[in-house]
Amino acid sequence: MSDKKELRIAMIGTGLMARTHSNGYNRIRDFFPELKYKPVMKAVCSRTEAKVKAFAEQWGYESYETDWREIIKREDIDAVDICTPNDMHADIAIAAAEAGKMVLCEKPLARSVAEAQPMVDAIEKAGVPNTVFYNYRRIPAVTLIKNIIDSGKLGKIFHYRANFLQDWTISPDLPQGGEALWRLDVDAAGSGVTGDLLAHCIDGAMWLNGPIKDVSAVTETFIKERVHQGTGEKQKVGIDDACIFHCHFENGSLGLFEATRYARGHKALYTLEINGEHASLRWDLHNMNYLEMFDHADDGIVRGWKQILITDGDQPYMDRWWIPGTSIGYEHSFVHQVADFLKSLEEGKPCEPTFKNAMMTQKVCEAVINSANSKSWQDTGL
Amino acid sequence: MSDKKELRIAMIGTGLMARTHSNGYNRIRDFFPELKYKPVMKAVCSRTEAKVKAFAEQWGYESYETDWREIIKREDIDAVDICTPNDMHADIAIAAAEAGKMVLCEKPLARSVAEAQPMVDAIEKAGVPNTVFYNYRRIPAVTLIKNIIDSGKLGKIFHYRANFLQDWTISPDLPQGGEALWRLDVDAAGSGVTGDLLAHCIDGAMWLNGPIKDVSAVTETFIKERVHQGTGEKQKVGIDDACIFHCHFENGSLGLFEATRYARGHKALYTLEINGEHASLRWDLHNMNYLEMFDHADDGIVRGWKQILITDGDQPYMDRWWIPGTSIGYEHSFVHQVADFLKSLEEGKPCEPTFKNAMMTQKVCEAVINSANSKSWQDTGL
Amino acid sequence: MSDKKELRIAMIGTGLMARTHSNGYNRIRDFFPELKYKPVMKAVCSRTEAKVKAFAEQWGYESYETDWREIIKREDIDAVDICTPNDMHADIAIAAAEAGKMVLCEKPLARSVAEAQPMVDAIEKAGVPNTVFYNYRRIPAVTLIKNIIDSGKLGKIFHYRANFLQDWTISPDLPQGGEALWRLDVDAAGSGVTGDLLAHCIDGAMWLNGPIKDVSAVTETFIKERVHQGTGEKQKVGIDDACIFHCHFENGSLGLFEATRYARGHKALYTLEINGEHASLRWDLHNMNYLEMFDHADDGIVRGWKQILITDGDQPYMDRWWIPGTSIGYEHSFVHQVADFLKSLEEGKPCEPTFKNAMMTQKVCEAVINSANSKSWQDTGL
Amino acid sequence: MSDKKELRIAMIGTGLMARTHSNGYNRIRDFFPELKYKPVMKAVCSRTEAKVKAFAEQWGYESYETDWREIIKREDIDAVDICTPNDMHADIAIAAAEAGKMVLCEKPLARSVAEAQPMVDAIEKAGVPNTVFYNYRRIPAVTLIKNIIDSGKLGKIFHYRANFLQDWTISPDLPQGGEALWRLDVDAAGSGVTGDLLAHCIDGAMWLNGPIKDVSAVTETFIKERVHQGTGEKQKVGIDDACIFHCHFENGSLGLFEATRYARGHKALYTLEINGEHASLRWDLHNMNYLEMFDHADDGIVRGWKQILITDGDQPYMDRWWIPGTSIGYEHSFVHQVADFLKSLEEGKPCEPTFKNAMMTQKVCEAVINSANSKSWQDTGL
């Protein structure tokens, strides 16, 4: 163990993503024992002392802070992991980069391209290792899709479609804002399902199928007013409850995307499908250990969609876990991203998606919102 | 049997749809014995004598013609069923209506709104019974969806989505045009997947969820040139290979539609889903005997999507067929439409979708094509 | 049409199977136009005149009888199709064979081996064409399984399992006996689920995987008494409500079978699976147009169960029906068997399963019942 | 943290189960922070020093031993967790109990009833807390099945069926014995699939559906000889490769069980289904986050099997993990069992299944093997 190098982490935030990231660091010793870097849970930061203290104890952080600026000042911190609401990403990331710390950031990068650009600039200028948690890339079935596409197996691509369907905001009695519901507050979140859900679909799409050139979108806010938990008043809802867009990819394929929190019966149904000349692939988050594949090269009389259970040691990341037939879960995607980040430090390579890379998704999200607002096609600039 | 009234049918065409419609008429005696009208297969018409003669023998037509105008002149014909390529629908339908014959027509009505309008006018003026074969309405699971929606079970509707995915034109070596492939020839078909496939999705959507107000579409022609079977020359492909659009329904819900013949692995995957406040419904043609339903009123701890096998006598049309657990097929939807048409004659009511009703779908299809061509939102005029 | 040879059919029975068989004959002209033999619906027979008359009219029989012995006497009948309750199969089949008529019989052959043996003897002695309607062999996916197994693709077979699960007799208020419920009356049916449901599974198993050598079974009668519709009295239930057995096949594989009418939620779930050294196959009646296949020869990283939609022209029987992606139903299996019977007449070959072949299934059924009654392993004698 | 009570654990073994159990202990702090007992990873034991040392480092054990007797002697150990091959369970468990240590043991208890009885006696005599890792009880969907059955929702039970299908030993080139393959060596394992796989099915069945009274079984060893890794010689294979049995439960329902390692295409397909008068439930390990339920009380026209995704906070154990729609994996079942064990210490209650309880499964397994060997029904003595 003596040959391990410590990577001293500070976590900003104590919400859901702070939990998934912390679990990621905490699993490294047991499941990626060969890595040279060893995460040390140095500090966690959140405004409410009782809460941050309890979080530190539960997740094994050595100390806590209630002001993130204190984290930046501390010399015993190598890397800052940002799991705050979106409106705080920029300030923290820029300060951390300027202080020479590595920066890991939950997606989306920021509330807008304008807000995100200085973050990317600061990171680039500082030259610090960085990554953005578009965690679904690291679900083994999704990583395998990337490998299959890169092998050329699909041939020319005709269609890419993805959606992310939820149903948790259908009740008009649900408030907006506050710690628990900042995702419904446009000031904190920047947008609704576009930044929260579609951003995942867009990141995945461009990773797998290349740049999106232009978009035509529509958004809808079904519930127009909700009580704001901060003010206690009924206020206009500023976010998009649903967003649909179609687009052209640079490679000539057509894209189709949809996200909503009003699809009764779907909890977190992120689905993607890609249709190529020779083969097609399909995946969804509710059955995350399965990959579906149609291979036109199969004997015509017995051609069909294969349900591939991704649990074998020769499938991505699965040599780390159990035995064929036994599943892993949602949280493992974060463990994989942490492991890949540590590996990238060893190898001196970037850990995709970097801030720069995540900026592409930010630009598509913004083009989508602009298209919906202007009822016109918008170029993404990519 | 003596109390049965004969309905003397003439079929125009001998292609796939002529077969499905003919089978519809031929099954009535065995499966709808209580109907007052009894189809009599009087004549079939097609240009090639050898072919039409063989068709007449196989399907039990008493006579045949090689010029459809002869059919119109014959006094022993009560009803004309049009199963020709789209470019002949208008002439035949108008002539038949003017001759006072009932008109049954395969979808879509025509190649354009301009072409369809005189058809509707002629039918209305003649006052003859008429129907258009948007046959998927009569698949029992789809009819049940209509019944459930009409019962109010779903509450406010948020989303409607449908697609129709095929993969049979991916090869660039496939020619266009001629008897077998007129669907790929824009002159004969009017459009590509929009009129052939999306028209079904649009008809179903407006039947189930009301009028579509405006649309924003994109189309693509992946293979730009194909040999034309008529000329033997490589010619520009004029049809749309793929079409995607989103839209607003009059009831405030968002719609999302896609059709393509380039989705490798999907043969005829017509899928529809509707998300309401209280429940959601889902269906697809590859599993046509199943309806999927999510009912939020179920006990929360055991809520889920139900796979409902539609084979019981109390489910639409299923008292006609076999026993619980035993499936019916694609062809039965046409049998049901013929039976419903005969029933409508008994009752003196229209058999939906009528020409007038099918005109609504024609208008949406045209708005879709116009939107794609102009890269702008288009009102449907509905 | 003048070159067609008439095959004059008499149907005995007017129940569910009389309907499925009659539909079989009635579809031949439209879907198998090349066959030399043309079924002529000469007569139908059943004890109740009103009922048999209506049946004749609905299904197109030229005449009717109320005593099956009259059918045997008639010289204008070439073939007798037996769709009565099981207890009448033997008398009719033997008389028909002795009168030199072809015999088609609904399964199972009879109530017991002792009752079936003279039937087989009479048929063999008369040398008349014959077949038994184990119709599920002619579902395209099942026929394809046979073809794949015969190709050697699976290698050595380790396991065969099949079940047939229903739930329609769970209510203790359901009576037994009478026209509608003779399947619950041991005197009419011979046995319960063993002869009614497992017989199908056993026929399929031996067709696909060879003879069953010995069996070990258990049966259960969950509801001990039911009102008999004949007597109006509560009477002991003599049939088996459920039956499970395991067995050895001659090829060394293990078999596992189950049938019940008490599996809540399953309407007619006939499922079969066969596991070989190199590949496995799976099918069920609720999704009858799908075949599932696992092929170990596939690239290991993307190996999985394929869902093969059996609707293409190069798949068994499917050149007769519609287009890729469009399903057929339960009734089509009977159409296929009738077509195969007519073809066998043309070719002068037996139409499997013949009476002799069906006797094998009868023997296994009897060994199963004996095993359950004696609580011991029983040889089948095959 | 000061109020936590340490539970000092020693792990015996470094194989797959040592990993799953170790992970169980290591997750408690982060996911069950309210528990009074805090596992402390005191020592791990295995014969090979290099291996046990690496294991200790990876999983955070403070020390290691190479002789399990040293563990028993150590006073700084409160609980011994036995993850060795089956042939060592008895010696270690008895010694640990006699030394007054808590005993946690991987299933099955032992190689035979005769070997297991003294273990149960020793545990009972010592009165030490104990549990056996039939981990599948703690998969949320399975726990929910238990809750639903206990609520009376299913009514009278007619059928219980379970199987456990694998395919990893099909190759005749696979050796038996040694550290990696002791499960194939009858001396180390006691039996083949019966103790390894069916034991899980039997434990689940009796937990959910009560005692099994008698059994009728068949077993098969498809590959008769394999090279033994210890001797390097080809030796007779003593284990059962496949086992099938049917049985009567005390409550009058019929049971059907099968396990095999020769079902090509199935990796670890543990499936269970229970059919009651009013409802049925179904689950399988490959889709472990789903429960399937058919509820006859649903409106008849929309009755069907529900796919219930078990990821909500009100479903068993799921308040510990993430958000609706996000899955957990195989390893979580062990975390839950560890948490339940710690909770049971707090509450002074047994943690089911205890050794005594696991003895019931041992008895059924033995009756199964005896039945197969004697070709006769065997009482289980329960």
From TrEMBL, chains A, B, C, D:
The membrane spanning regions, by residue number, are: none
Q: Which Gene3D superfamilies match?
A: Dihydrodipicolinate Reductase, domain 2, NAD(P)-binding Rossmann-like Domain
- One Pfam entry for this protein is GFO_IDH_MocA_C3
The answer to whether the entry has keyword Metal-binding is: no
The record places domain Gfo/Idh/MocA-like oxidoreductase N-terminal at 7-132
Which residues belong to any copy of the GFO/IDH/MocA-like oxidoreductase domain?
145-282
Entry keyword set: Oxidoreductase
| Tagged with keyword Oxidoreductase | yes
Q: Which InterPro entries match?
A: Gfo/Idh/MocA-like_OxRdtase_N (IPR000683), Gfo/Idh/MocA_oxidrdct_glycsds (IPR050463), GFO_IDH_MocA-like_dom (IPR055170), NAD(P)-bd_dom_sf (IPR036291)
Database matches in PANTHER family: BCDNA.GH03377
Q: Would you tell me the protein name for this molecule? A: Gfo/Idh/MocA family protein
What is the scientific name of the source organism?
Euzebyella saccharophila
Lineage of the species this protein comes from: Bacteria, Pseudomonadati, Bacteroidota, Flavobacteriia, Flavobacteriales
